[in-house]
Amino acid sequence: MDRKRTVLITGGSRGIGRQMALDFGKAGYNVIINYNKSEKQAMDIVNELSANEIACQAIKADVSNAKEVAAMAEKVAYGPVDTLINNAGIAHINMFQFDKESDFDKVMGVDLKGVWLTTKAFLPGMINLGFGRIINISSFWAERGSSTETIYSAAKAGVNGLTKALSREVGEYVTVNAIVAGLIATEMNDTVPPDALIKIVDNTPVRRIGRPEDVSHAALFLADEKSSFINGALLHVDGGY
Ligand code: NAP
User: Fold this and answer.
1) Which of 40, 87, 163, 241 is the pocket-test mutation for ligand 1 (most atoms within 8 Å of CB)?
2) From atom 46 of ligand 1, which residue's Cα is the shortest distance away?
3) Which atom of ligand 1 is closest in space to residue 14's alpha carbon?
4) Is the pLDDT of residue 1 over 90?
5) 217 Cβ partners below 8 Å, 6+ apart?
6) What is the pLDDT of residues 96-143, one digit of tens each?
7) Which residue is catalytic, options 78, 152, 173, 241?
8) Average per-residue pLDDT in the chain?
9) Which of 7, 19, 115, 116 satisfies CB 3.0 to 4.6 Å to 86 for a cystine?
């Protein structure tokens, strides 16, 4: 490609998103990170990449809010955005019978509607370009179901369905894939009890939990121009769990 690639990563301020921002920057992409609450962490990434002469911008937006997502698309300073990584997500652990309607709306709002809204905002630009990559960060709980995480599991199952359906509509120009991640060591799992972690490692043939780098590596692969025949895939990055 004769122009620089530009990636927008939602939830790029921490965890897996942070790792992807650093790795895509090193791989030569312009990097736009979205964040909601963690402004300092987002600015630290901008400063780190800028110090290495990598074009980087941080944009605040709650991905569950249509107005904020539309405003984010207007603020993009580099571009055109040809790669969108729908990574922003929240966990929610509770017994089903104690979940409230407001919990449902919040988790679905960020984890599923956020993917839909952000894709709506950036897909048209990719179709105009005649090239694009959309990579959705899903979870192994989408397929297996996590007890005490029914809303999260359902939201991520929705992400898998959205990925497959949209890949059929736009695959001629834009590939749409999901990374189905296993348990990854980030702040999201700070409250997972040690015995639950041990159980997961016991059921993981590679005998460890995942690292943000594992997901980032897969995202770089899917974003590559040469990955043009991979579309509608659910790429499992879970150590074979
Ligand atoms: P994390 O460390 O908790 O980071 C979550 C990121 O999402 C933060 O950058 C946060 O930004 C952002 N975010 C949350 N709500 C947002 C909102 N309303 N609008 C915009 N950004 C928002 O979690 P992580 O482990 O890196 O998770 C990243 C993705 O991987 C999520 O979709 C998660 O479901 C998925 N995943 C994680 C695991 C795992 O085991 N960690 C496994 C499978 C899938 P602010 O702090 O700025 O709000």
Assistant:
1) 87
2) 38
3) 9
4) no
5) 23
6) 999 999 999 999 999 999 999 999 999 999 999 999 999 999 999 999
7) 152
8) 97
9) 115
**CA of 90: how far to CAs of 78, 129, 131, 203, 220, in Å?**
27, 32, 30, 24, 23
pLDDT at 84: 99
Q: Cα(128)–Cα(126) distance, rounded to whole angstroms?
A: 5
Residue 64 confidence (pLDDT): 99
In the predicted structure, residue 39 carries a pLDDT above the cut 90: yes
Q: Check whether 2 has a pLDDT greater than 90.
A: no
Q: How far is the CA of 2 from the centre of ligand 1 (A)?
A: 33
Place of tokens 């809303």: 151
User: Within 6 Å (CB) of ligand 1, which residues are found?
Assistant: 10-11, 13-17, 34-38, 62-64, 87-90, 110, 137, 139, 181, 183-184, 186-189
Query: Separation of 89 CA from ligand 1 center, angstroms?
Result: 4
